[in-house]
Amino acid sequence: MRNHYNFSTMKGERNPYVKALKQPITMRIDKATVGYFKALAKELGMPYQNLINLYLRDCALHHKKLQMKWAA
What we know:
The chain is an all-alpha fold. Helix content is 39%, strand content 0%. The radius of gyration is 20 Å and the shape is elongated.
């Protein structure tokens, strides 16, 4: 670090992106699904939570809906 930085005189600023931060939640996901995302994330070199978030964000942005047919 350079010697001419003086952090004692700096004024703190609020984070302007605080509303865009992620919200922690708890979800119950079956082991097979978590295993799938962990393996895929390892292959891509990224955390599996980020991969799940990207997938869910893509679904939300493109208004993807699950097509399910219940047995009668």
